Amino acid sequence: MKNPHPAIGTGTATPRVVLVTGAGTGIGRATAHAFAAEGAHVVAVGRRTAPLAQTAARDASRITPLALDITAPDGPGTAVRTALELHGRIDVLVNNAAIVTTESLRTYTRASMESLLATNLYAPVLLTQAALPALEDSRGVVVNVTTSVAQRAWPGDSLYAAGKAALEVLTRSWAVELAPRGIRVAAVAPGAVETPIGEHAGRTPEQLAAIRAWQLDHTPLGRLGRPEEVAWAITRLASPQASFVTGVILPVDGGAVVA
């Protein structure tokens, strides 16, 4: 019988292997660091080589950077094969990579919608699909990173929120579908967190300031979150001690969802 409690990744136990997407900056980088600090081997996936190198620099013995586009036809398969070639197993998959845009209902085009959903929705589906055999072997965990605005109105880039809401439905559905195979699935829903995702979308300083002001007005704790706080939640949901937790969407948002 397969062990239902994967190794924690410390001491004499077999180190866990964690695949993290969007690991070049922000929440992905903090998550890679958090798992490495626990003793796991981390395959840090992202599009850009330089930020990934900075992620890996903290612990090159534990973090392997892998520059690729997960929206490419061979992206998910390459990421999974690389992790297996390096470490022989995958215990945790963190679907974190996401993009936002400066568009809205008035300006969306089919091409811009496909680009957004390719990263935020299709890639997590295809990557999880590619990793299923390895996750079944390890009785592993999938942690999806969604957003607290998936549970409320998000005027402006509504398709971003819609894609993340779809990922939350997939989280619950996969949790039920994959439970008989020993795989747990959960999600973390960050609120306003200090990451460069807005800058990557090309938003101006004035636009970013307006968004931050709105977010702070709707965050009861009155501050922005830190990537490390979201990474903590991801590692806790993925931990062996959470072996009876599946299908949950955990807000890490300073109370924004309940306000």
UniProtKB/TrEMBL annotation:
SMART domains in alphabetical order: PKS_KR (SM00822)
Ranges for domain Ketoreductase: 16-196
PANTHER family listed in its UniProt record: EG:BACR7A4.14 PROTEIN-RELATED, ZGC:101858
Protein name: SDR family oxidoreductase
Organism (species): Streptomyces glaucus
